[in-house]
Amino acid sequence: MSLVMNPDPRGLRHVWRLFFVRNRENPGGFGVYYAIIAGQLLVLAAAGLQTSVPLERLFRDTIAVAEEYPGCCHVYDGLISNLGILLWWAAASITGFAALTAAGLSCRRYEILALAMAAAFSAWLAMDDLFMLHESVLPLIGFTQPMTYALYGLIAAAYIALSWRVVLMASPLLLAMAIAMLGASVSVDILADHDLGAVSAWLGANPRIGILLDDGLKFLGIGFWFCLHMAAARAVITNAVRSRPQGRGN
Questions:
Q1: Is residue 250 helix, strand or coil?
Q2: pLDDT for 184-200, tens place per residue?
Q3: How far apart are the first and last CA of the chain?
Q4: Assign residue 205 a region: left if phi > 0, alpha if psi is -120 to 50, beta otherwise?
Q5: Where are the domains of the chain?
């Protein structure tokens, strides 16, 4: 079974089905993914509406909170950051296990490679957030944050270029949303940390909004990344199992 979806001349109806409706290659539908993103939005709304805890303590890395606040640490310190790290690790775990399973099922090499690359990249990003690598460690060896962002962008572009058949099979919508959210978060981070005109000045004058935009968009982007790769792993394994000849050994 080909995993590359052929263009459908029926236009908008095909686009709707491609983005929002379950298809032959990814039969699971999107209800579980919508539920995950909705849960994230509820968490962000609750964090933004409450006034008892400074947003920095909820959204920033626990290590950064510990360095800035003498009263650290409480259970809520780094809450959103830690949830994001768990999602990175979840994506790495699912795709890593799926890559091993796909190899055992003799799936196509590009499918195994795509899942393995997703696992490695997701695990690295989890380590980056957990140990603040791009903020505290990589600058020690000459990698500034903008340089690290550019490097990560190139790695992500290379990954998508090599894995497009798998990630597009999973969901173009989830891929587009993950790229948009993570890219917007990086843009807000750069604008907030550097004097780049009126937007930078506005973010500096409204730190609460800046935190919600920067770390909130990142949190949602990680959620879309996780959902994308959960869909990809499911699609690859489901197609492999369905394409096996009937009566083949268990």
A1: coil
A2: 999 888 887 765 566 66
A3: 21
A4: alpha
A5: 86-243
